[in-house]
Every structure is written in C-alpha cells, then in structure tokens.
Structures
1.
Amino acid sequence: MLDSAQSPLAIHHGEYMNAELLQLAQRMPKAELHLHIEGSLEPELLFRLADRNGIRLNYPDVNALRAAYAFNNLQEFLDIYYIGMSVLREEEDFYDLTWAYLERVHRDNVVHVEIFFDSQAHLDRGIPLEVQIGGIRRALRDGLAQLGISSKLILSFLRHLPEAHALETLALAQPFLDQLDGFGLDSSEIGHPPEQFARVFARCRELGFRVTAHAGEEGPAEYVRQALDLLRVDRIDHGNHSLDDAALVRRLTAEGKILTVCPLSNLKLRVVQTMDRHPILTMLERGLKATVNSDDPAYFGGYVNDNYRALIAHLPVTREDLYRLARNSFEGAWISEEAKATYLDELDRAFATDRRGARDMSRRVAGRAI
Ligand code: ADE
Ligand code: ZN
C-alpha cells in the first residue's frame, strides 16, 4: 500500500488543501496587534526619506541595505532598526511611513491595526512628540476614511533605557494622551526584565490606559510572569517562552490572555530555528490565545499574510486554526464590544462563504484526481 506521502491522491489533496487555506487566510478579515510602525519602513521609502531630508546613508543602495538584514538575534536587528528610523524627521515622514503600511495591509484584508511607535528613540534625536504623533495619527485617520481600517496607537517604552527615561516620556506625552490608546514595552529583552518598569506601568494604568509588554521573545518564562504580576498587562507580545512553564501556560489560558505571536520575526531573529518547529499550533492546542502578526515586516520578510503563508507551508495548519487565529486577533483588540461583534460577524461570513466554495472545489478536484 502506498503511504500518504507517495499517494497521488494525497498529493492532490494536500495541494488543494494548501491552496484553499492560503486563499482563506488571504481573504479572511483580520486584525494586526503587534506592529512597530518603524519596522514597516521599506528600504525604498527609507532611501526616499533620506534623500528628502538630506541624510547620507552608509549603504549605496536598496539592495545593499537589504543584504544587511541578516540577524543572529534580537540585538543585531535592533542595532540596524534604530539606524534605519533615523531618516524620520518631519511630520510628513511619519505620515508617509504609516500610510504606506496601511495601504499595504489593506491588500491583506487587515481591517484593524494596533501599532507601536518608539517615541523615545525619536525624542533622543530631537524629534518632538507632536511631529511623531501628528504624522502617524493623520495617516491613521486617512486609513479609516479611505481604506476603512480602524486603529489604535500604542506608545512603547524602550527597555534598554532606564525607567526614569520612560517616566519623563510619559510626562512629555501628557498633552497627547487623548491621541494614545495604550502603552507597551519593547527593545532588548534579556537583562531588562519587566520588574524594572513597574512604576511607569502603574502610572499608565492609573491614567486609564491598556498596557502590553514584549515578554518571552528571547527572555525566560519568568519575564512573562513579571509582565503579568508586576506590569498587569492586558496582552503579552510574543510570549514564546511561556511554553517552558506548564503552570504559566495554565494561567495564561485561564485568564484568556492574548499572545501576539510573530512567526517570521521569530525565524529571522532565531527565536525558532526553522518554521516547521514554530510553536504556534502547540500554543493553540494548549489553549493559549495566539494571534499572527508581522512585528517589523520590512525587516523580517513580510506582512501578516506572508506570516500566514509561511505557517501554512510549514505546519499542519487547519481551517479551524485559521479561524481561531483570526478570531483571537479581534478578541484581543482594544476595541468596544460592539466593534468586536461586527468584526467577528464579518469573519464568520468569510468562513461560511468559503465553506460553500470549498465544497464545489472539492468535487472538481476529486473528479480530476480519480
Ligand atoms: N522593537 C521592534 N521590534 C522588536 C522586537 N521584535 N522585539 C523587541 N523590540 C522590538
Ligand atoms: Zn515587537
């Protein structure tokens, strides 16, 4: 008897399944909850902005810059990421950056985004919050008006800087609080545990903001625990190393905590060695509310749908997994219950329509295979 890997029918079926899943992943509505806007700065735009602002780059062209995007760990990426964002000077630059991202993910059927910006990195270069927030917010407004994409804006504190710096930034942000929807924590993780930011996060929560933190990307499960206990986060960004601690997984599951997982990022930063060893399906199996996100798409090889595509190509993803991942993205969004219900209805409709299409397609493929 043929084993399934050799059976022509199985191959047909496998190909059909992948094609169907790819199409479904592409056209299902989804939210992106983990996106650093500076990480969506494509080399072409980076060069254009450098030119516009009279900045000389150390790379002769786009190809040379792209060739430098090979990383062994998070820090190697961050070193080049902070250099890249130095071309952002004017309000218009932040607008162009954000608008380019929105136009791009509109094609991926992303209908809601929650984006981080690294305000301290720009402040340190002398770019006022007004310029940063003004440009990003104007593009987000246009994104809603012209593309129908709703959005939230999250100021993310840099954990390689002292907490005092974060507290100063929060004070500077006072006049702009009505334009912010939450606070986060990112940058170099190991050696900068969440406990170092307990005071600034407490202040953000007192002000009525939602909070999230990168934890368990390179750092241990203990950092995820600290993010929960000491920062009282609403979500965990990445959270991969939670899986090392069964009690923590049970807790995250019981609390229904959303994990904003970033598969291509994990591969590029060597958090996972190969995509077929990515733990996202294990997370779902254990009841964790994982979502799919792109993190820094210009640096890691793709946007949200590229992440779905990589998962489908390398893991036994099912239709139910896709549904669960997209559903989690809306459940974890910082939007009203009404908005959630509307998006979840849209999602259900996409899957219901697809089911009819899939049955027709299945008959056609089966006919050909026999
Ligand atoms: N800043 C931008 N991308 C990041 C990531 N993946 N981890 C930590 N900080 C980041
Ligand atoms: Zn991130």
2.
Amino acid sequence: MKSARPAVLLATMFLVGCVVTVNDRVLVGKERVALWQEKLVIAHRGASGYLPEHTLPAKAMAYAQGAHFIEQDLVLSKDDHVVVLHDHHLDSVTNVHDVFPDRARADGRYYVIDFTLVELRELAVSERFKLSDGEKTAVFEQRFPLEKSSFRIATFAEEIELIQGLNRSTGRAVGIYPEIKSPAFHRGEGKDISVAVLKVLKAYGYDEQQGSVFLQCFDASELQRIRDELFPSMNMTVPLVQLLGTGPAFRAALIPAGMKKVASYADGIGPSMQLIVEPDSVAGKLKTTNLVQLAHDQGLVVHPYTFRRDLLPAYANDYDDLLEIFLDDIGVDGVFTDFPDLTVEYIESNL
Ligand code: CA
C-alpha cells in the first residue's frame, strides 16, 4: 500500500503540532525544512502539458493525476474579480482579438483589467500561442491543438471550489499554490490585488489550513507588505514563497545575507531551475550552485520551476533524469511541473 499523500501528512502535521506552525518561527533552520520533507508535485498552471493552462479541465486533470498542490496565477478584472490567468494580458491564450477587436490599448495589447468578468466569460481560451501577421503558432507544438473544444476563464473562487469539492468527493487533501501577479501594475491601475487575493483565501478557510496553501510572488516588497501589514490587519497568515527569476533584480537573494533577508518574511523560495543548475551544463558534468544549501540553511523550502518533458535542458537525458538530478541528487523539496502524472510516478517509484 502506498503511504499517505504528502498533502495529507502536511495537514496532519499542522493540525497536531500546534507549536510547530510555520509563521511564528517556533522552528528554525533544518527543523523547519523537515516539516515539508515529502517531495511535493506542484501542477504548474494545472496539467498544462495536456490541456490549455489554467482552465478548469487542466486543473481537474492535475488533480486526478495525483498532484499534491495545484497552481493558480491571479490577476484582477475591471470589476475586481480575481481570475486565473498567467498574464495580465489576454493576447496569448484567448480569442480576444476576434471578440473585442477595438479594445486593445495603444500598445496593441488587450489587458484583463479593461474587461468585466461577464466580458471575460465571452472569450474562448486555447493553448498558448504566438501571433504574427494574424497567424497563430502554438508555443508547444505537441500539446493540445489550438482553438479546439471549449475552454473558459475561471475565477479564483471557482477553482478553489473545484479543488475543495474534489477533496471532499475523493477524501484527498490537495492544496492550492496561488501566485499574485504584477502587484505594482495593479496598483498603477488603482487596484490592490493582494488584498483581493487574501480575502478569497480567507473566505475559503485557507488562513486556518496552513498545510494546504503556499502563496507565491516575485515581488519581494509586496511579500513583505503582506507579511508585515496585511496579515496582521486581516487577522490571517499563510506560508509565503519568494519566486526568484534569472534577472539582476534577484541577484541579492543568491548570497547568504540576501537569503537571510528572504527568510525574515518567507517560508520558501521558488527559483528558476537555472539558478540551481547552470543551463550550459553538460550531462554528467553539472555546474550546480549553492542556492539550495543557502535556502535550506535558512529553513526555507525550495520549489523550482518549470519541469517539462517537452522542454528539457540540454544536460538532462530525459524527464526522469531531470527529476533525479533535482529531487535525488540536489535535494529540492518539490517541483513545479506541466506533467504531474510523470512526476508523481517518478516519486512513487524512486523515492
Ligand atoms: Ca506562476
């Protein structure tokens, strides 16, 4: 018989161990990492290797494939609904050009925040594409075909209801892993996306079930604001994850003092895999950084992105090899993947 799912273990640990809550820092360093010692499979935008990203079918498939957490990227509509889309533009995954041809801004882009939820509902969602001279080309050629079947934009609340509903009907405890997108952009538009997201989390009980949620953002100052101002004022707290990209803005976090600072407001990091293994590495001769060690020394969990069977780094022979490098050899605590099924299979048969 298989052992209990990590998400169940997490929930249990948080429930039984009232002195080991994450956010009050009772545990430090390696002890805190040990809270999440199971390897987590985080469905990146759902089972997006198989169905259009961030659609409810992609989320249901990720759930059925055994993901432990399912990711939501979050942006706001004109009428302040929190909706699940990777970008604050609509151009690359919907038919907005056909439905609302005259609603682009001066830069030619269509902004989610210019549309009400009712209008967003009119759009068909498809696999991610590039548009050039009116021609759409799929970003991932072998994935779900463009403009087939029927997929719609969902709200954050609807997606939570899907996952919580499945948790009830299956008896499993799959978590959510929301990302606040572009808080500075939203502020410039007169909207506070972080408050809107936290309200939904609280309404659905995620301030009380801390083993079932991680809240992620690239914006370090926004995460600190959430920790220092919004959590106390909204009387809630959830584990925070600092996302790290490859750009210069994130360099400060890659040294011990920077990582210590991250640990003062976050519980984990979500780095690009390129910050852990340099992308010009060759098979058998990996150039690994000390990022994971730095983070673990500060008690931070490490969940790198993005693990894709159809977009492998040159140093990995195949998808299992890539997982072996990160999960077994380097020891990350979980991965964001477009292919939850393959990742669950690997973990269940190898770890
Ligand atoms: Ca994301």
